[in-house]
Design the sequence.
């Protein structure tokens, strides 16, 4: 009879529930083996759900790939904060790319976002675009976000034949599809959301060093209670958006 450790090694290679259920080990009444088989049933079920979700999120790309070689997904991070730039990313995933668990970056843990960032940057073509705080104040946040996205496209190595854009149109002369909540419905946009968010978060962490006291490394420029208290206490920094409340009110009283 195999040891439980030997059973673990064997069952770990199973890819389907059927393999588990038809295994000779189902006749093993040891509690450790019973728990082991159930653990791997749960593992396979979880893996199958991730595969199914990834397949669903690849439908836009798969439908376009028959006629378009380079498909770029675009997303941005930083429309809501009252401080810091807006950062966009464009990502062209290679054919056959597979990253189970890829999703809207806001749904991922920091650890997973950073791990996914490394995979995407190693395997995909990507471009990053930034619109400054001054451009946000001059243009408005919507137009600044569009500008950042356009810059991200321009920073790609390859010229995309189609753009998949999260809830926006860019009018760059490239065929495009605007997708509401695109980061949850397209793997390319989800990949772009990961790059954009991690890039901006790292920028805000650096600002925490340059502008101590505001807590930029924790709230990333969003108007949290702690951030607002620091803002009223310290005043506005050079990276606060002057056209956003409550920054605007504070500056008007100086």
Sequence:
């Amino acid at each position: 009879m195999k040891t439980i450790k030997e059973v673990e090694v064997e069952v770990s290679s199973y890819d389907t529930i059927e393999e588990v259920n038809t295994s000779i080990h189902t006749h093993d009444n040891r509690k450790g083996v019973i728990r082991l088989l159930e653990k791997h049933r749960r593992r396979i079920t979880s893996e199958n759900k991730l595969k199914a979700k990834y397949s669903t999120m690849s439908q836009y790309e798969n439908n376009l790939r028959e006629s378009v070689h380079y498909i770029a997904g675009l997303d941005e991070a930083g429309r809501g904060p009252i401080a810091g730039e807006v950062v966009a990313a464009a990502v062209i995933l290679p054919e056959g790319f597979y990253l189970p668990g890829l999703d809207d970056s806001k749904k991922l843990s920091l650890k997973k976002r950073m791990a996914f960032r490394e995979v995407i940057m190693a395997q995909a073509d990507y471009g990053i675009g930034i619109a400054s705080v001054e451009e946000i104040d001059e243009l408005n946040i919507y137009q600044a976000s569009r500008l950042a996205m356009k810059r991200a496209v321009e920073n790609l190595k390859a010229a995309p034949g189609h753009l998949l854009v999260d809830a926006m149109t860019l009018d760059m002369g490239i065929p495009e599809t605007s997708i509401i909540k695109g980061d949850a419905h397209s793997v390319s946009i989800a990949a772009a959301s990961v790059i954009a968010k991690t890039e901006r978060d790292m920028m805000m962490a650096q600002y925490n060093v340059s502008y101590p006291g505001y807590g930029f490394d924790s709230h990333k420029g969003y108007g949290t209670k702690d951030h607002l208290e620091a803002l009223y206490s310290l005043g506005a920094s050079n990276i606060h958006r002057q056209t956003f409340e409550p920054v605007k009110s504070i500056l008007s009283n100086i």
User: Anything to note?
Assistant: The chain is about 50% helix and 10% strand.
